[in-house]
Amino acid sequence: MWKSFHQFASPPHFYRLAGYLIPWFGVAALILILVGTYGGLVLAPADYQQGDGFRIIYVHVPSATMSLAAYTLMATAAGIGLIWRIKLAHAVAAAAAPIGASFTFLALATGSLWGKPMWGTWWAWDARLTSELILLFLFLGYMSLRAANDDTGKADRASGLLAVVGVVNVPIIHYSVEWWNSLHQGATIIKLGEPAITGDMLWPLLTMMVGFGCYFATVLMIRARSQVLQRERNSRWLKDL
Amino acid sequence: MSGPLSGFGVVLARDLRLAFRRPGEMANPLLFFILITAIFPLGLSPEPELLRAVAPGILWGAALLSSLLALDLLFGSDYEDGSLEQLVLSGHSLPVLVLAKTTAHWVVSALPLVVVAPLLASALYLPQEAWGTLMLGLLIGTPTLSLLGAMGAALTTGLGTGSALLSLLVLPLATPILIFGARGVDLAAQGMDPVGPLYLLAAILFLALSLLPLAIAAAVRISLD
After folding, report:
1. What is the ipTM metric for this complex?
2. Are B105 and B65 in contact (CB under 8 A)?
3. Which of A187, A219, B144, B214 would disulfide-bridge B208, Cβ 3.0–4.6 Å?
């Protein structure tokens, strides 16, 4: 098992494997997102309270899920890189951060657009919104710390440590914010209860989520490959390529 | 070398002695704390009802910001003159040594805030029943802030990026402390039992005390590479 682990972690092997997988994930993402969009915008019935306005859920929820997945993946990769000193893991963590930050921003932006007609405000200090905003700052802190270090190895370890400390802190932040809000505002904002979602609405959402996941994997592999190229620019296997 | 805590007292005494030789720098976080608190009534309005309502948030926010202020000094001068490297090479347990440095930093920069907090609380018309909660909350909340700040300081030492990056790293992680601290004071001011948030602050402190010294030590080693 260890042998295959290290073989997978070798940059040339990863570079080839990712190059092989990218088209598959890319095509899957394209198909799933197209099908999900059609299902969400055309086939799904309008919500009885929110009308057609609810349809932004098909972008909002997958982005929010992906933002959390990206942070978890980034911190896991950084942890693996710190513990086993695997450079490839650091490259993956570095590649995941900007994608995660973009998903977080997209989740915040679509949430805000959704909030205006439904809650009557662009921004509410709702627990989940606030957690997502703090998550954006965690991503930005990670990226800034990485950018501030000139030396790649040092940047890897410093930002990796921050990601690991951050991931321990994320549940504490989440529950503190939830608790703060439930004490603070509660009923002041008329928030729609979460209705049990019907199958017609659910399947496009699940399709979109899997599609976003495939898209995330595609972009992650493209970015990780370019990270590998940058880091291995002096190595022999690259010249032979 | 005797025992796992060897070196703690020596480093603590050294850092405290260094700090007390420069009383001007020592007073800075305290002055900053008072100034920030004084700015809010000027910007909002001098109405007692309003100030009483926002006092917990102002006091805790000011404490959070002042805890960031002196962090450059925590490892900065030791990094420049090489004594940080001596600490790493000393053979003592590095997490214990950085915990000693952080403790000294907390005594110098945060403990005075706990002492003057009631004074500022009375200036903001916070009811007297809440003063005890405020002091106790600051007493168990600010060590966590110092530990988080020390981790940020260790990660940014030697980068020459100034304190903006440090704030970006530390403030998001410190939000739970702010929330629980301010909530406790708020509850006490309304005559309710503030013990829940205080317990949570204490729980976070113990978590931070057990894990963060390891992270700070790792960050110091990374910075020295």
Report:
1. 0.89
2. no
3. B144
Pair B179, A176: CB distance under 8 Å: yes
Q: Which of A158, A168, A172 sits opposite B155 (nearest CB)?
A: A158
CA A122, A125, A130 angle in degrees (round to 5)?
100
Is residue B156 within 8 A of residue B166, CB to CB? The reply is: yes
Q: Which two tokens stand for residue B213?
A: 């010294």
Scan for tokens 């349809």, then name that residue.
A55
A165 contacts in B (CB within 8 Å)? 151, 173, 212, 215
What is the value of pTM for the model shown?
Answer: 0.89
Nearest CA to A128 out of A161, A175, A172 is that of: A175
Q: Outline where chain B has alpha helix (H).
A: 8-20, 23-43, 48-69, 71-81, 83-89, 94-109, 111-123, 131-156, 163-189, 195-224
Backbone angles phi, psi at B117, to 5 degrees: -55, -45
Whether A162 and B222 lie within 8 Å, measured CB to CB: no
Give the span between the Cα atoms of A94 and A217, in whole angstroms.
Answer: 14
Closest-CA distance of chain B to residue A65, Å: 20
Residue-wise pLDDT for A116-170, tens only, equals 887 778 887 777 788 889 999 999 999 999 999 888 889 999 999 999 999 988 8
Q: Which of B132, B89, B109 is nearest to B29 (CA)?
A: B109
Question: What Rg value do the Cα atoms of chain B yield, rounded?
Answer: 18
Tell me how far apart the alpha carbons of residues A129 and A115 are, in angstroms, rounded to a whole number.
11
Q: Hey, which residues does B132 pair with through a beta bridge?
A: none
